[in-house]
Specification:
The chain is α+β, with helices and mostly antiparallel strands. The protein is 59% helix and 17% strand. The chain has a 6-stranded antiparallel β-sheet, with helices on both faces. A 5-stranded antiparallel β-sheet has the order 8-7-11-10-9, sandwiched between helices. Strands 13-15-16-18-17 form a 5-stranded mixed β-sheet, sandwiched between helices. Helix 3 packs antiparallel against helix 5 and helix 18 runs antiparallel to helix 19.
Length: 780
């Protein structure tokens, strides 16, 4: 027993000591962790207070914005944000008051906010009542309401500022607690083992990192709300739509990184779109502000315009609308398109473009959606405000115009250069001006005693009376005719008569308004011109026959020259090939080289004759213009070039669908074949030809024009040579470098001129070229 007692004591101590140490470690750890969690809970509590205060501030902003929209536009729908926010503001303030119950100063601020909110609401009902009655808003009321709202904002901002200071202080306490826990835990854990110490430290560090991540998330959310609030302020401060959009895009740039952004407004009835404003970080805006496009340039199908469309990599997409094809050709790699919707009605689109792929993540897309919603409402409010201003101006101008028209009528009636009269339904002259008296030779008093039937030539009276009866029966609104009057001296004169009928409020005829123009001199000139036209038509017929005869002779001469020139060429080529086949093994290398040169030159000469004939026929051939689908023209051109495309492994990308133009189909196909062939042929060695084809719509001189662009990666043309390449036989490179006759682009220009269109080039040496063809858009 005595020998077992020390063993038991040692054994007990061996077991008790680790257990004691573990218990001590557990107790200390539990106490420290509780201390740390308490600090973290206070930080989280402060974040809840800040979040609740920010949400309360947003509700106040919604109330103010909804009220302001209603007082500005008078539309009951604008009160919806106010009413929704008003229904929620009381509960949110009570919740905020509960959250700050541990801080008496903050509780007092919340009470002041509630009191000031109730004071502000006292101004609302009278303001709405005055707006419903159409009464103007007193300036003193506006100033009082604004001062009250400003005090509300300052109180909330002070509350948020105090809580942010508390959060910073509690965050520092939490970090200090974390460090203490780590150090003390390390000292204690070394007594029980390295593994337990490492595990405890890792868990504490993980908690610290989680806290830091949460804090960073809160900071990003705060920054986002702050920027969106700045955008709201920028929108409210803007005067024009262009300034409004520019300010919003400038505020958006720090939180959504882009290289170019622009807003387009849509006219769904006309199917057109206009670039309202934009912001570019890379130079000139593409497309330019004010450019008018077609809605089809924005999406392949119109139904897609109501959805967010994100192209993460423009280069990898084969089928793109014309606008995105244009952005891709200027080096942009990704594009985000967000619709502008107001009450589910599409009014435009926000476009963001970047030079790197996949530039807009989900957070950026959500921010862009929020900004587009704000812009849509702001643009709609701006339009309503402008509409009200325009209606007021139109009403004022109408009143001024009415007074001016009354004065103008009196002076015009009496001093007009044509005869003017008011005639009763039975034909009696009621009012006549001095010019009519001079035309018919009667005095005013004499004419008022007559009817228009009395002075109308009998042969013209029946038709005149027929028109009068049709107007009285409301079958025609007006009529015009040429007839003869019998002057007081019994001479006949020709006049041009235009008549309209004025009715009273009940629709009963009051009197005719007649305008009488003296045209006897013109009638004599027309008769002389008619005789002259007969003579000219005979001369034109004879001249046309002579020209047709000359054209036939020229056609026969061209065919004969072509046949006579080609015959010796075929003979040269045939004998040279036969000489190589029969005697090639007996000839020296330089002799075979001479023969190869003869064959190549004969082939080049044959191509030259063919191009000359094509150019000659193009200048003489009758061209009938009709609606032509560019999709079918491009397809036919690519079919003709299939062999050349396959030989050079060329990559052709076409932005479909393409519009319909007014053109001559064979001539247009020939022009496009020449341009695509040049883009494939004139490339540097070992470079794969790449060609983009797309169309844009422009409006010039009240007509829509389609500009078809063919963009290549060829060697390019220096600006000083760009006009030369459209001339006959103009070549910038020798035939040994790039084959050709130097007539292809001349054929393209002549063909476009014959079709009433234009052709041009935009190029830099070594940077490829963009050839464009401009033709009228088909309206059928």
């Amino acid at each position: 027993m005595l020998s077992e007692e020390p063993f038991r004591r040692r054994l007990t101590r061996a077991i008790a000591l680790p257990l004691g140490l573990l218990s001590l470690l557990s107790g200390v750890s539990i106490w420290q962790i509780g201390w740390l969690l308490s600090a973290l809970r206070w930080v989280d509590h402060t974040d809840q207070v800040i979040s609740q205060a920010n949400y309360t501030q947003k509700l106040l902003l919604d109330m103010e914005t909804g009220l302001r929209g209603y007082l500005l536009a008078g539309n009951q729908e604008f009160l919806e944000p106010y009413e929704q926010a008003n229904a929620m503001i009381h509960d949110n303030l009570d919740k905020l008051k509960i959250l700050v119950s541990d801080n008496p100063n903050q509780v007092q601020r919340v009470r002041e906010i509630i009191n000031q909110k109730e004071q502000w609401k006292q101004f609302i009902s009278p303001a709405i009542t005055r707006k419903q009655r159409g009464e103007p808003e007193p300036l003193s009321e506006l100033e009082s309401r604004k001062q009250n709202m400003d005090q509300l904002r300052r109180q909330i901002e002070t509350l948020i500022s105090v809580e942010e200071q508390l959060r910073n202080q509690r965050s520092r306490t939490a970090r200090a607690t974390t460090q203490t826990v780590i150090l003390s835990s390390l000292l204690l854990m070394f007594t029980v083992g390295i593994i337990l110490a490492y595990f405890t430290r890792r868990q504490i560090i993980r908690i610290s990192h989680t806290y830091e991540d949460a804090l960073q998330t809160v900071r990003r959310s705060s920054q986002r709300l702050s920027v969106l609030h700045q955008i709201d302020q920028a929108i409210l401060a803007s005067e024009t739509d262009e300034t409004l959009v520019s300010n919003a895009l400038t505020q958006l740039q720090p939180i959504v990184i882009y290289q170019q952004a622009f807003v387009a407004v849509f006219d769904l009835e006309a199917q057109t779109a206009q670039i309202l404003a934009g912001n570019s970080q890379t130079g000139e805006l593409i497309p330019l502000q004010g450019t008018q496009l077609m809605i089809a340039d924005f999406a392949l199908e119109q139904i897609l315009l109501r959805e967010i469309r994100y192209s993460a990599d423009l280069a990898s997409q084969e089928s793109l609308p014309s606008l995105l094809m244009q952005l891709r050709s200027h080096g942009f790699c990704s594009c985000l398109c967000v619709p502008l919707l107001v009450e589910n009605r599409l009014i435009g689109e926000l476009n963001l473009a970047a030079t790197q792929t996949d530039a807009f993540n989900l957070e950026a897309q959500n921010i862009a959606r929020e900004v587009s919603a704000q812009l849509a409402i702001a643009l709609q409010q701006s339009r309503l405000r402008q509409q009200l201003q325009n209606e007021l101006k139109e009403r004022q101008l109408a009143e001024i115009e009415l007074r001016e028209q009354e004065q103008l009528f009196r002076s015009t009636f009496n001093q007009a250069a044509v005869g003017i009269a008011h005639v009763s339904p039975d034909g009696q002259w009621l009012r006549v001006n001095q010019k009519l008296c001079e035309i018919v030779g009667y005095t005013r008093e004499e004419l008022l005693q007559l009817t228009f039937q009395d002075i109308t030539y009998p042969d013209d009276l029946d038709l005149d009376l027929t028109y009068v009866q049709q107007m009285l029966a409301n079958e025609i609104p007006t009529y015009a005719m040429e007839k003869r009057y019998i002057r007081k001296d019994h001479s006949l004169i020709w006049i041009n008569l235009t008549v309209a009928l004025l009715r009273d409020n009940n629709g009963q005829p009051k009197y005719f308004i007649s305008v009488i123009e003296y045209i006897s001199d013109r009638k004599q000139v027309e008769e002389a011109l008619r005789q002259l036209n007969i003579t000219l038509e005979q001369r034109v017929t004879e001249r046309t026959a002579q020209i047709e005869e000359k054209n036939q002779e020229l056609e026969a001469f061209t065919y004969s020259v072509s046949h006579d020139l080609r015959a010796p060429l075929r003979t040269m080529q045939g004998f040279a090939q036969a000489l190589l086949e029969d005697c090639g093994s007996q000839l020296e290398d330089f002799c075979r080289g001479y023969i190869d040169s003869i064959i190549d030159d004969a082939f080049q000469m044959n191509m030259l004759i063919s191009d000359l004939l094509a150019y000659s026929r193009l200048t003489r051939t009758q061209i009938n213009l009709r609606p032509t689908a560019l999709d079918e023209v491009i397809s036919e051109a690519l079919k003709q070039l299939a062999g050349q495309i396959q030989e050079h492994q060329a990559q052709i990308r076409v932005a479909t669908p393409l519009p319909v133009v007014i053109a001559h189909r064979p001539t247009l196909i020939q022009a496009i074949v020449n341009l695509i062939s040049n883009g494939i042929k004139f490339v540097e060695p070992n470079i794969q030809p790449q060609i983009d084809i797309f169309a844009t719509t422009e409006r010039h001189n009240d007509q829509y024009w389609i500009q078809l662009s063919i963009v290549d990666n060829a060697i390019g043309i220096a600006p000083e040579h760009q006009e030369r390449v459209f001339r006959v036989f103009e070549r910038l490179h020798g035939a040994e470098s790039y084959p050709g006759t130097g007539i292809g682009l001349a054929i393209v220009r002549k063909g476009l001129e014959r079709m009433g269109g234009q052709v041009g080039i935009v190029s830099q040496l070594g940077q490829g070229s963009r050839f464009w063809l401009s033709l009228p858009k088909s309206t059928s």
